[in-house]
């Protein structure tokens, strides 16, 4: 027998529908809500009052219209009713960002802290996070959670680092942070976090292979609008596919992995910065141009191999992405066409829409999404 819907469920559903409508449309009138959601004006008015009293929405001026007469009051959500914090743990620095319910940056800080697998390090990082939160003036109850973007594979429950050889923190538990913080915390694979940011920015994105061209190469698969995590948490670890058996030593202990030819660390010389390299490239420095040409050929071979397995769009992100030009993408397509047995259309290589700070934003976004999902159910 089907259970009947109770009046309380109807009220909750109406409340959630109204909040979701305001969230998606940013600035709306009571009339807009009633008309588009097919709800009575008294129902809408009562819910707007309740949402406003709970601090979820606010009056935000008046709606501009072409009609004569008094303009309708505009309603919008309060973006920082709840916030989330993303933290990126790197070898020589810790980056953190606070975002609001729209995923927009509130503030960002970076600290030069050398990673150490010691409680004193974790305690120091947590103290910086608390200072960051306090400096923004938010209360503890406003913090949805803290996501830590890590250079390693993460367990399905987001509580343990399964493989973290870059900084030698395999087996690290989230409790090393939560014992110093009063918030819900989770680990996220840094590349997956970057892909989450990409998906947030482009909601219509359903299928793609995200390639992070950072100091270390990484990838993530977006399938049917979701980030694939795999049975054991190690899906899309293509950086450890061996392409040159006698090549350079990878941090995984094997030789000639994709990371050794398609990472930023493989491209730059000692003490050379990314900015230095691309300045030399655009100034047509011969040795830099030669390195770049070789890099693009290696990257094209990797993209072609992956494209033969997964016929989808490829998004180039990471530290190199802001420097990519149309001419570079053309070189990739030309090389891929030489390698593939198919007549490929030149429409599947894209450049990230948010190549900067996407990793820490992506580490914070799951808490925002979970909050919005709860309000919509």
Description:
By secondary structure, this protein is an alpha/beta fold. It has three domains: 7-77, Orthogonal Bundle (Arc Repressor Mutant, subunit A); 83-195, Nucleotidyltransferase, domain 5 (2-Layer Sandwich), CATH 3.30.420; 203-351, Nucleotidyltransferase, domain 5 (2-Layer Sandwich). 39% of the residues lie in helices and 20% in strands. The chain contains twelve helices and 15 strands. Strand 8 (153-154) and strand 9 form a beta hairpin. Helix 1 packs across helix 3 (41-53), helix 6 (190-201) packs across helix 12 and helix 10 (286-309) packs across helix 11. The mean pLDDT is 93.
How many discrete structural domains? 3
Secondary-structure-based class equals alpha/beta
**CATH C-level category of the largest domain:** Alpha Beta
Nearest-integer average pLDDT = 93
Terminal CA distance reads: 22 Å
Number of strands: 15
Annotation field: number of helices: 12
Shape: globular
Q: Output the helix-strand order.
A: HEHHEEEEEHEEEHEHEEEHHHHEHEH
Question: Which ranges are low-confidence, i.e. pLDDT below 50, for 5 or more consecutive residues?
Answer: none
Strand order within the widest sheet?
6-5-4-7-10
Multimerization state: single chain
Please estimate the helix content: 25-40%
Main beta sheet strand tally, sense and closure: 5 strands, mixed
CATH superfamily of the largest domain: ATPase, nucleotide binding domain
Examine the coordinates and then state which fold CATH places here, giving the name of the CATH topology of the largest domain.
Answer: Nucleotidyltransferase, domain 5
What's the gyration radius in Å?
24 Å
């Amino acid at each position: 027998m089907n259970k009947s819907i109770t009046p309380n469920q109807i009220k909750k559903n109406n409340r959630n529908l109204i909040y979701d409508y305001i969230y998606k449309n940013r600035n709306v009138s009571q009339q807009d809500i009633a008309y588009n959601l097919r709800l009575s004006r008294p129902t809408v008015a009562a819910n707007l009052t309740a949402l406003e009293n709970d601090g979820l929405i606010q009056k935000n001026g008046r709606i501009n219209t072409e009609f004569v007469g008094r303009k309708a009051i505009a309603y919008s959500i309060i973006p920082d009713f709840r916030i989330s914090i993303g933290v990126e743990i790197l070898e020589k620095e810790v980056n953190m960002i606070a975002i609001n319910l729209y995923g927009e940056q509130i503030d960002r800080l970076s600290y030069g802290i050398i990673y150490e697998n010691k409680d004193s390090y974790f305690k120091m990082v947590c103290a910086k996070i608390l200072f960051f939160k306090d400096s923004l003036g938010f209360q503890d109850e406003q913090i949805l959670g803290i996501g830590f973007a890590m250079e390693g594979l993460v367990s399905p429950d987001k509580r343990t680092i399964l493989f973290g050889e870059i900084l030698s923190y395999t087996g690290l538990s989230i409790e090393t942070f939560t014992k110093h913080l009063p918030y819900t915390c989770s680990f996220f694979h840094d590349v997956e976090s970057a892909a989450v940011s990409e998906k947030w920015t482009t909601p219509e994105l359903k299928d793609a292979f995200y390639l992070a061209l950072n100091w270390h190469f990484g990838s993530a698969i977006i399938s049917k609008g979701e980030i694939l995590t795999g049975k054991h948490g190690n899906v899309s670890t293509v950086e450890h596919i061996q392409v040159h058996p006698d090549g350079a030593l990878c941090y995984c202990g094997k030789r000639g992995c994709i990371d050794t030819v398609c990472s930023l660390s493989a491209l730059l010389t000692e003490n050379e910065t990314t900015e230095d390299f691309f300045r030399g490239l655009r100034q047509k420095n011969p040795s830099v141009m030669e390195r770049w040409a070789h890099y693009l050929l290696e990257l094209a071979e990797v993209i072609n191999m992956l494209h033969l397995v997964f016929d989808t769009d490829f998004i180039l992100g990471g530290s190199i992405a802001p420097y990519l030009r149309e001419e570079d993408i053309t070189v990739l397509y030309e090389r891929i066409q030489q390698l593939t047995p198919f007549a490929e259309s030149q429409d599947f290589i894209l450049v990230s829409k948010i190549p900067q700070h996407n990793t820490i934003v992506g580490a914070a976004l799951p808490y925002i999404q979970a909050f919005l999902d709860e309000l919509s159910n």
